[in-house]
């Protein structure tokens, strides 16, 4: 039975929040926090408009996915299997699972980054990683109605992020006039020359300055996260009666994602930009420690609390997305309370745990795995967007089933942008080979 929204507007909005908060929590992970910090470090307030553009695209794609979840007879993978064949659904699920599993290790390391400034012994790293994963696995099999528990937990974690990063923002006292100007699209001087990456043949590692901007857009406009929204609204029990709730949920939930990311970016623009004491930002630990000279241990603690909430929420939901959609792609069910989604979720957790332990033990990043994950992203993100838009424009999605034009229009714009970013990423991956 679907939920009946209360009559009071405020209560209706609050009661509508749920699926998109879960989506926002997985999107707002270590990658997005680091990317927004780097953009502030490199470009100050000038690239805020990129974040706003990504939020608008994400609202549209998430709302479209929610509509599909409510109006289609089955899940997206069910419909792909019925209309295009089981191999298409299986390929969709497999690609999404591999993307989630490959990047799961960064969520493990993100949790460690939140506590690392306060740990005296590096020997505790491995224990924290193992203990955290075992805890999540036990929770998967120890609790019933996992959707309800996950929704409540994500609301708490997103609330922690909001409060923690808002406190940091209040402490830094940013330039609000420059912040407002950042909403106006513009390109910093020299940025247009960086649109195509250049191969550095020397031994010095030089970061392509455009990469953080691309990462900011890609981690905010997460097609994989939007894709899973259709599953979440079905697990919440929403029907056609809840179509307006779905739109409210998508708009408010993703706007919260944008607000938190914006606060991190503004804080970095104030603290990190042209700071002579900050020579590079390579990790979340660097970002946290950069706050200490100006704001003391308290600032580091608060920022680290926000990092922990972001990393832990992404850590949990990312694995659920990979496991659920893979299971559904093979026709084994897509709800996290079912047997096969749980098993595949555990597989994603184990993959991330093993790679994270390897990274901490060997002291180096798994370059081959990162390249493989990036290659999957090049293929997978456009594929997921195409699948949703294809279903949204089928002949049976007309009349009362019609998806609003603005959702499809912005969805197509989002698809084009994801293809452009995918082509650029592919060019980046091939550049060392092309350059010989």
Report on the biggest sheet.
Answer: none
Could you say how many structural domains there are in total? 1
- CATH class call: Mainly Alpha
In angstroms, what separates the terminal alpha carbons?
Answer: 61 Å
| DSSP strand count | 0
- Quaternary organization: single chain
Structural class category: mainly alpha
Number of helical stretches of at least 4 residues: 17
- The CATH topology corresponds to Amino acid/polyamine transporter I
Key traits:
single chain, 436 residues, mainly alpha, Amino acid/polyamine transporter I, 17 helices, 0% strand
What does this entry look like structurally?
The chain is mostly helical. The protein has 17 helices and no strands. It has helices at residues 9-16, 19-27, 30-43, 48-71, 76-84, 86-115, 124-142, 146-172, 176-181, 210-220, 223-236, 243-271, 284-290, 292-329, 339-362, 367-392, 405-434. Helix 2 crosses helix 8, helix 3 packs antiparallel against helix 10 (210-220) and helix 6 packs antiparallel against helix 14 (292-329). It is globular. Residues 199-206 have low confidence and may be disordered.
